[in-house]
């Protein structure tokens, strides 16, 4: 039998064909195995959380949260030490409630929001935790509202903003949640938003210029609006006022002006002097926690690859060490009790569902 030598090209083609057949058989086997693997149900991928928007009451005894009833998110409340007996305070059936829950400092009322038909014109309501009585706090439909401010000084009241008068601007109202009585605090005719303080005073009107800058204006001695500070467009996304201290002596900012990262700044309102309270070497600070009694910052967080917290006072050193061990996820302190003893924590994870924890600092 005569032997024919294969050319190099023929040899390569033969080898490629054989490899292709082997790979093809492997792909078929993998496809067959995949066909036998059940798909993840779409409902599981897109359904809402079992519980969300979890908030602790000012006295630290109860928790309010969103959870579904027949697939629709409603407001629930339960004792922090016995959540198995939590009960729904609302029973809406058409659409989920809005993703905001606000406890009043009287520990009896919780504010929540509803829209109509998905129009996102959120109407504020409150529910009496003891009696179940529900009362609308803002007009509707077609009016968008939001909580402007709460304060420990006024346990039965809220500052609420809504745009019933002029859809372009939100006026500020002082609302008694027990009775629903509403008093106009500021008729807003020009500002994108308004900044108030824990004494329920209007401190700044905030507007954006045609150049993209953000301006904070305050009332002058004659009552006219005067420029307090201007934030250039380059810093507008990373610079904002956070809160006034309870005594009104300082204003706290997340501020990137004059630097490449946002830091936490305290501004002396008498002298104008500014001091850096916290900063991160690698990233902007993006989140601040305030003492519930004096509204001074006690913690700040930055996000680089992961969220990382720093405590501004050594007295919180043990808290920081303990919280780092609770869960491997990224921590958010969702709310704290009025005496700052109990914190509600949320740890977000990339490989597992997020988890909530109640943390008693005095235990």
Task: Explain the overall architecture.
The protein is mainly beta and about 375 residues long. Among the domains are: about 45-180, Neuraminidase (6 Propeller); about 190-235, no CATH class. It has helices spanning about 10-35, 40-45, 315-325; strands at about 50-55, 60-70, 70-80, 80-90, 100-105, 110-115, 125-130, 135, 145-150, 155-165, 170-175, 180-185, 195, 200-210, 215-220, 225-230, 240-245, 250-255, 265-270, 275-280, 285-290, 295-305, 305-310, 330-335, 340-350, 355-360. The strands form seven sheets. The chain has a four-stranded antiparallel sheet with strand order 1-2-3-4, with no helix packed on it. The longest helix has 28 residues, at about 10-35.
